[in-house]
Amino acid sequence: MESEELSKLIRDAVKESLSHEDEVLGKEELRDLMHEAVVDAMSTLGIDARSPMDVQKDMQFMRELRLTSEKIRQKGILTLVGLLVVAGAGAIWVGIKHLAG
Q1: 70 lies in a domain?
Q2: Domain membership flag for residue 22
């Protein structure tokens, strides 16, 4: 969900509450309205706000996945550099042997 869609959702919720000018919303009613808007926004993002522990586990998994992929990339680059150094050293060695022999 883009920020524009989230802003529209919140504006709609506020407009709905303001459309009842003669009706004063209590603190609980306003809280419930805002809670519903947040739950709707999170649902649109594919997040089940009614199970926060699952959301936390998903976020932790995504963090671990990101960190692991960064480590794999770093080790891959290091391996590639090592391979190029060894190949270069081998080429120099073969060149020296060819000239000497």
Answers
A1: no
A2: yes
Residue 88 CA to residue 72 CA, distance in Å, equals 24
Instruction: Answer whether 0.85 is exceeded by the pTM.
Output: no
**Mean of the pLDDT values across residues 9-31?**
74
DSSP, residue by residue, 7-72: HHHHHHHHHHHHT-TTSPPPHHHHHHHHHHHHHHHHHHTT--TT-HHHHHHHHHHHHHHHHHHHHH
Beta-carbon contacts of residue 55 (< 8 Å; ≥ 6 apart): 47, 48, 49
Structural contact between residues 36 and 30, judged by C-beta atoms closer than 8 angstroms: no
- Residue pointed to by tokens 């309205």: 33
- Residue 27 is part of which domain span? 1-50
Residue at 64 is within a domain = no
The total domain count for the chain is: 1
7 within domain boundaries = yes
